[in-house]
Amino acid sequence: MAFFTQGQTASFSRTITETDFVMFAGLSGDYNPVHVDQEYARETRFGQRISHGLLTASLLSRLLGMHLPGIGSVYKDQTLQFKAPVFIGDTITATATVQDFNEERGIITLLTECTNQHGKIVLTGTATMLVPKEGEKV
């Protein structure tokens, strides 16, 4: 099992595209017009289409499953607070910071945040992950 230290971080960035909106709507079945209809969305408080909240949150899945804690780890739970909208063209940086690691139980707790290209937090939460022990597959 890898050893994790409090404060250890990992992050990656991705620019959200029109294609992401369309594919996520198709995958999730969420065709709420605030996500898929520009004319409708123009009349909302946002003035334009906004990302599905879980599209933004899905960046955490990549971060946690591939980077920190990484391959072999699986979600135990995740809290989410959506702080600001995400728009087509926004570059979102997903960051995870180790808060606690229980090596004996193979459980890691991480602060998870997504920020936009202006440094504004758009999503925050806490993830708890199971990590594989030496020689084990979760």
Which secondary structure elements does this structure contain, and how are they paired or packed?
Blueprint lengths: L8 E7 L2 H11 L4 H4 L1 H5 L10 H14 L7 E5 L2 E2 L8 E12 L4 E9 L5 E10 L8
Antiparallel strand pairs: 1-4, 2-6, 3-6, 4-5, 5-6
In short:
It is built from 4 helices and 6 strands; from the N terminus they run βααααβββββ. By secondary structure, it is an alpha+beta fold.
Can you put this structure into words, describing what you see?
The structure is a single chain. Helices cover 25% and strands 33% of the residues. With 138 residues, it is of the alpha+beta class. The mean pLDDT is 94. The chain is built from four helices and six strands; from the N terminus they run βααααβββββ. The protein has helices at residues 18-28, 33-36, 38-42, 53-66, and strands at 9-15, 74-78, 81-82, 91-102, 107-115, 121-130. The N and C termini lie close together (11 Å). β4 (91-102) and β5 form a beta hairpin. The chain has a domain at 9-16 and 53-130: Hotdog Thioesterase (Thiol Ester Dehydrase, Chain A, Roll), CATH 3.10.129.10. Strands 1, 2, 3, 4, 5 and 6 form a six-stranded antiparallel sheet that branches.
Provide tags for this entry.
138 residues, alpha+beta, Thiol Ester Dehydrase, Chain A, six-stranded antiparallel sheet
Number of strands: 6
Mean pLDDT: 94
User: How would you sum up the global shape?
Assistant: elongated
Order of helices and strands: EHHHHEEEEE
Rg, alpha carbons: 17 Å
Beta strand %:
25-35%
CATH topology of the domain at 9-16 and 53-130: the name is: Thiol Ester Dehydrase, Chain A
Name the CATH homologous superfamily of the domain at 9-16 and 53-130: Hotdog Thioesterase
